[in-house]
Design a protein that fits this description.
The complex is a heterodimer.
Chain A (H helix, E strand, L loop, with lengths): L2 E8 L3 H12 L4 E5 L28 H5 L7 H5 L1 H14 L3 E2 L7 E4 L5 E4 L2 E2 L13 E6 L7 H10 L6 E6 L11 H10 L2 E4 L2 E4 H9 L8 E5 L7 H12 L2 E5 L6 H16 L3 E4 L3 E5 L6 E6 L2 E12 L10 E2 L4 E2 L52 E3 L9 H4 L2 H20 L1
Parallel strand pairs in A: 1-2, 1-16, 2-13, 7-8, 7-11, 11-12, 16-19
Antiparallel strand pairs in A: 3-6, 4-5, 9-10, 14-15, 15-16, 17-18
Helix pairs in contact in A: 1-9, 1-11, 4-11, 7-8
Chain B lengths: L36 H6 L5 H5 L12 H14 L17 H5 L6 H16 L5 H10 L1 H10 L1 H8 L2 H11 L15 H7 L2 H16 L8 E5 L1 H6 L2 H13 L3 E3 L8 H5 L3 H20 L3 E4 L2 H14 L5 H6 L1 E3 H8 L2 H7 L9 E4 L3 H4 L6 H6 L6 E4 L18 H17 L4 E3 L3 H11 L2 E3 L1 H9 L2
Parallel strand pairs in B: 1-2, 1-3, 3-4, 5-6, 5-7, 7-8
Helix pairs in contact in B: 3-5, 11-13, 13-24, 22-23
């Protein structure tokens, strides 16, 4: 026997979660297995579709209009622009706390590095911070959080030419937390509105934070904090701070570990749960049975091999960072299904000498047919019933284009939907 | 031109210098510890583990798993005078960091070894804390004596003045109620019922009913653990009846504590003594084709992961690879989903359950098993009360100085239990069950009990 389903999705990032959700919405019995927790908690929580062309032109105003001009090998061209739109509709419905779906145009969001990033969807908590909004802005950093130096970020944004005045101030977070307190510590304190000691008095954390910021305001209409404002109750915390300060409050997305990423992960897992998907995280897929078709895969737990079988499979294990694509001195490979990964034979051709050069490795990943099935070296499908989605795909450079989340959502959606249709 | 093309030394690569003068350098002299170097090197500081740590989220003094694991390990290698930071004793050993790490760093193994070193080399063996921890860690010993006089023990252990004295002298919180001891232990019941011979007969009868060959190779060795033996014996009985109904012959081999509370308190010598007995008896059976089954997720966790990570005992790898959680095993080998779909529950278990996934089930990838399996079961509802830790973490929440933190961690779970439809709880872990009951007043059941009610007539 084996643990059975119609569709088995391997990988728990944005592509895997979207794939599982779209397959389940098509009526399939879906199971998702992920080696470890979702990598979404390392993501900013912003959902980019396309910020720049592969030639570096941008920021783009309309990502959908630019898709037609992408090279044929790009995953967006494989699935087509209408699928990208349908996939985003599924995302918008599954994650109602996100904004940006009212327009095709990219929004411009300030980052914790002080740059301005074109993105298609963003959490509600970031919406008062849009760089296209001309209201003056105060950024508030926390002394212990060296990832967000507010005066520095403000200076950068000013230099980037944002249409408003922006200042940065640094405070000590009330309660004298340890110098390397985790983002979850700040979030928990604000979620529960726990009491902190301020000059010998016990004050609820949200009040204490507002009291620290209040005297720093110089008539700004909005205040931005690093993204630490709660895990479970971010909306309530922003509203409470906004009321006490008389301004709009927003969060600036941060690097890993990221609360907006964590909240997005929670929202998507809730949507999967509601759609009846089975989920297992914590153990890797280590082996595959089958020749033309994948018959079953083995999930390993400390030496025990647990067979999982399905009619259709989706590979969504990520790229180099997510370890869905691996490389060594000999070559580049896809470790789970051992799919072919096209790459230059001489490893000195994988990269350019300039750090920010147009590296070939950034576009390495599996190549697919129109049905998203990975192709072997002779361009035939590796398996009839295996489709790939997300960063395991080749043909695009998500970091340079700012297209990572969009490609994951669009190809995950398409792979999941087709797998479910085929499984009938 | 490179140096390689214009050698200006008399080094001759044709004659390698591996002569008698060569003395290999032992980097870690006299150490029979596991080499944690590859794990430490795999950490790229993403801090995802820290976002999973329930203690770091409530305790300002706790530096988190990234420090306790790879960072502290590195400090130990580079500084001979470095002593293990005493904050390692504030880690509750929930092991959530293991499941979090995208790089496969063996965080809990690092915590366990550091804690073991701290306790054996730095902790005062005459201190109240050491004595208290040793007593808590050796729950099996206390339970063994208590089970001889269960009525007296049940009275004495919750007798107010005695508990006040225990808190003041030993630091065992008086806020909690001690679990009740069963009048008859699981093993006494098992022996009275006829042991393995009876199980074999029952399994045969079930195979006949199911149209399976009478000699089908279906046999499991049950690791009941201390709690099912001394306290919640109904869980052990449910396991036996359920497995027999599927045609499995059950044996209940000689066993000691899994070691879970000992790992958490850094008592690695105690844990090893118990592990040697467990591995020896399980190993014999595994060699004869039995699989090891546990109903407590911390017990299965210990056999599967902590044993091979911490001890070098003959047969340990094979036992680990053949150990399963009780419901998981049936999901793999039987069409459990279909049987549950066709079943119905009435009577006193036809309830809405507020289910909490123990951290140690999470680490085995089993945190969603119960909710997903019982989705299709008529007559009951099982609602997940969220992914927070219950906060008790075995002996952690029993310590007077940790009690408040334990309740703070559990707060989210208590709230979700309150919001859930039912007023009965469900979990696989005996100490999570204590915490759930303590915070909500609900009665707590085990998924095996519900499966028995659904599938065994």
């Amino acid at each position: 026997m084996a643990i059975e389903s119609d569709v088995l999705v391997v990988g728990g990032g944005l592509a895997g979660l979207t794939g599982a959700l779209s397959a389940a919405r098509e009526g399939a019995d879906v199971r998702l297995v992920s080696y470890k927790q979702s990598t979404l908690r390392q993501a900013s929580g912003l959902v980019d579709v396309l910020g720049y062309t592969p030639d570096g032109d941008g920021p783009l105003t309309d990502p959908f209009a630019a898709i037609q001009s992408l090279p044929d090998s790009h995953p967006y061209r494989t699935v087509g622009v209408e699928t990208v739109r349908d996939a985003l509709s599924l995302f918008d419905e599954a994650v109602p706390t996100y904004e940006g779906g009212h327009t095709d145009a990219n929004a411009l969001l300030p980052t914790h590095g002080g740059t301005v990033k074109p993105t298609a969807r963003y959490p509600a908590g970031a919406s008062a911070g849009l760089a296209s909004d001309d209201r003056d802005t105060l950024l508030v950093g926390v002394e212990e959080m060296v990832d967000f130096d507010a005066p520095h970020v403000a200076a950068h944004l000013g230099a980037a030419g944002v249409p408003f005045d922006v200042r940065g101030e640094t405070i000590r977070f009330p309660g004298d937390l340890r110098a390397d307190a985790k983002v979850t510590r700040y979030a928990k304190l604000l979620d529960t509105n726990g009491e902190v000691a301020v000059r010998g008095r016990k004050v609820p954390a949200r009040d204490a934070l507002a009291q620290r910021v209040n005297p720093l305001l110089e008539g700004e209409a909005r205040v931005g904090f690093p993204a630490i404002l709660g895990d479970d109750e971010p909306g309530a915390i922003r509203a409470a701070l906004g009321e006490k300060l008389g301004v709009d409050v927003f969060e600036v997305p941060m690097g890993p570990p990221s609360l907006p990423g964590l909240r997005l992960e929670d929202a998507l897992f809730d949507a999967l749960d509601a759609a009846g998907v089975s989920i297992e995280t914590g153990n890797p897929v280590v082996d595959v049975d089958g020749d033309d078709r994948v018959e079953r895969v083995f999930v390993e737990k400390n030496g025990a091999r647990i067979p999982n079988s399905a009619d259709q499979y989706v590979l969504a294990t990520g790229g180099f960072v997510g370890k869905g694509i691996e490389s060594d001195r000999e070559g580049v490979s896809e470790p789970v299904f051992d799919c072919h990964v096209p790459h230059a034979e001489d490893r000195y051709d994988w990269f350019e000498t300039e750090l920010f050069g147009d590296h070939a490795f950034a576009r390495y990943g599996v190549a697919t047919d129109d049905d998203l099935r990975p192709l072997d070296a002779s361009e035939r499908p590796e398996f009839d019933n295996l489709r790939a989605a997300g960063s395991v795909l080749g043909g695009y450079d998500f970091a340079a284009e700012k297209s990572g989340s969009g490609v994951s959502i669009a190809t995950g959606y398409a792979a999941g939907q087709r797998a479910a249709q085929e499984a009938r | 031109m490179s140096d390689a093309e214009s050698p200006d030394t008399d080094f001759d690569p044709v004659a390698p210098n591996t002569g008698e003068d060569f003395e290999p350098v032992d980097v870690f002299p006299d150490s029979d510890d596991f080499d944690l170097r590859p794990g430490a090197d795999s950490c790229y500081k993403c801090a995802t583990c820290d976002t999973n740590c329930p203690v770091a989220a409530v305790d300002d003094d706790f530096p988190g798993p990234k420090f306790q694991g790879p960072e502290q390990w590195r400090l130990k290698q580079t500084d001979d005078d470095y002593t293990v930071d005493d904050s390692v004793m504030d880690c509750s050993n929930c092991m959530r960091c293991d499941n979090a790490c995208p790089s496969g760093v063996p965080l809990s193994q690092m915590h366990n070894t550091a804690r073991g070193e701290y306790v054996s080399e730095q902790m005062d063996k005459l201190s109240v804390e050491y004595v208290r921890n040793r007593i808590l860690a050796n729950y099996r010993t206390s339970a063994f004596f208590a089970s001889k006089v269960p009525r007296l023990a049940n009275f004495a252990m919750n007798f107010g003045p005695a508990r006040w004295v225990m808190e003041k002298t030993l630091g065992v919180t008086s806020e909690r109620d001690f679990p009740e001891f069963a009048r008859q232990t699981f093993r006494e019941w098992w022996a009275e019922r006829g042991g393995q011979a009876t199980s074999r007969e029952n399994a045969k009868a079930a195979r006949n009913r199911r149209g399976l060959p009478e000699d089908a190779d279906k046999k499991v060795a049950y690791f009941h653990g201390c709690y099912s033996n001394y306290n919640t014996t109904e869980v052990g009985k449910a396991m036996v009846r359920l497995y027999e109904a599927f045609g499995y012959e059950v044996v209940a081999p000689e066993q000691k504590c899994s070691g879970t509370p000992m790992f958490a308190n850094g008592m690695l010598d105690d844990a090893r003594r118990h592990a040697e007995v467990n591995v020896s008896s399980m190993s014999d059976l595994v060699e004869r084709g039995y699989d090891a089954i546990a109903s407590c997720t911390s017990c299965s966790m210990a056999l599967r992961q902590e044993y091979p990570e911490l001890f070098d005992i003959d047969g340990i790898e094979k036992v680990a690879a053949n150990t399963f959680e009780a419901v998981e095993y049936l999901r793999i080998h039987e069409d459990l989903r279909e049987e549950v779909r066709e079943a119905e529950v009435d009577g006193d278990l036809a309830e809405e359950f507020a289910y909490h996934a123990p951290c140690h089930s999470r680490n085995q990838g089993l945190d969603r098993q119960a909710v997903e399996l019982f989705r299709d079961l008529d007559g009951v509802g099982v609602e997940d009360v969220g992914d927070s830790c219950s906060g008790i973490s075995g002996t952690y929440g029993w310590k007077e100085e940790k009690y408040e933190k334990s309740m703070q961690i559990g707060e989210e779970m208590f709230e979700h239990m309150e919001d859930a439809d039912g007023e009965t709880g469900m979990t696989e872990c005996p100490t999570c069950a204590m915490q759930m009951e303590h915070g909500s007043g609900y009665e707590i059941r085990h998924p095996l009990e519900l499966l028995e009610a659904a599938l065994v007539e």
